[in-house]
Protein 1
Amino acid sequence: MAAVSASAGAKSDYPLGPGDAIKIQVFQNPDLTLETRVSESGAISYPLLGSVELGGLSVAQAEQRIRDALQQGGFLQNPQVSILLMQIRGNQVSVLGQVARPGRFPLETANIRLTDMLANAGGAVPGGDDIVIVTGMRDGQPFRKEVDIPAIFLHARTEDDLILQGGDSIYVHRAPVFYVYGEVQRPGAYRVERAMTVMQAIALGGGPTARGSEKRLRLHRKAESGAVVQSEPKLTDPVQTNDVLYVRESIF
């Protein structure tokens, strides 16, 4: 089993979790060399010591815990313990949906944030939404939060750049769209931009044709009941997800 490639800093900061494979070595004590996996409870079974809780500890902290246990147990006077991270399995985050490289990514260091993990996945594709959904567990309870990614940078909402934990999932949904058809230059589906108005929506469709009129519009919008409601919108009205705009012919 090949060791995980990581910098010295990442090695020291990485929090061990269930499923992680490690190799423990004690200088000049080859009989204490052990390759093992962290159990689901976060423990390992180590010679002389029995069960040792390592889950949630950084690699450096785990080394110190074993060092202290060997010393306090009277087994060695000044043990020099090193832990090599062989395979990361427990502390991973899933990135799903409309990203360039969906998959599972390791938390190789502590304090990995949401934007860091999205960057690891290549970011959202052009059809991806600006708002992502983060799910996982916090304090033993299910956790779910919708995060506006542009707002983190545009409005300095750094508190929304969440610190991720092992087992978290990040989901990037398809961007919301509206539809425009009838007497427009380029009928079709388009992304709903922030604070978009009906006038801007028609402009995305290339504007009315020679026979069309921006004064003769019909809007089809699904109500909460599920019924489709028709109306004649103003050019300054906001556009919502799944709106259907129909540009009718001029009456002249």
Protein 2
Amino acid sequence: MNTLQVGYSQTVETQIDSVLATVFKDNNGPGAVFLVAKEGKPIYRKAFGKANIELDVNMKPDNVFQIGSMTKQFTAVGIMILEEQGKLNVNDTISKYIPDYPNGNNIAIHHLLTHTSGIKDFTKMKSIMSIARKDLTPKDLVDFFKDEPTDFQPGEQFDYNNSGYVVLGYIIEIVSGKAYEDFIEQNIFEKVGMNNSRYASEREIVKDRAYGYHNRGGFINKMNVSLSIPYASGSLMSTVDDMLKWQEAINNNILVANSTIDKVFTKGTLNNGEQFTYGYGWHLKNIEGIPTREHGGSIFGFKSMGVYIPSLDIYVIGFSNCDCHSPTKITREIAVLTINNFN
């Protein structure tokens, strides 16, 4: 890092500190970890608040968080790995893999990836609490929502949908012959060196786990749900450092070819030709007119947000261990600060 960059990064650090201090000023409550990287190198990496309130354990930058819907990035790339291996095609209909799926002849894997399938989002069903604490197989989970009336015909609308990514996880299992958890572990985490990332578990010992909280007029431990329910739409855990490794692996084509990455980061198009701002597992938006790749996550007790700015090679990632503190707005604010310092 040259002298100019050091000066820049010190300015960025002070500015980011002032933004985060306004939100995470309670050192005795749940906290967060934020990392900002430029050209793959961290220029900001700090922790705030407590990783565990009951045991009075301070948060540290290498704590492990549930990342919620940021899981969708891994599911999408998992599908693309299988496509490169010739085991499936994103234009295949899901009936090829799940023959009894209603309307499955009209729903393509592409529709699932882009949230345009019209399948009912199971997290919005009134009966969701009847299964929330049950350990379901992927087939049982798909069976829970597959017979619900569809919201629209495939490709007609973009409507963010967890069910689609559950079906993708099930297809990964059918095609690969491996549990989703094992497939992601072996084909992504191990290859990228994401040694502190995993499928979430409440029972297993997870070193440096951050515990999740709600605020209900005071902090309480998060509600427990079976982690078989968010599944391929939201059940992974990671650290900010591992997520930077992930971002670098995407940039450097460690897992899939550049042509495949181009497909992942192509904005979707509806049947009527209208474009929308989602690719495969990422929102494709912009900040102050500069294109971004971003995604957030929300799961009981945790919220997450990551923003990548390809033109400047800037990555901003924030994890919170209370679903009362969404890092979405702050992460985008930090991205603006960083852009202004380096653009």
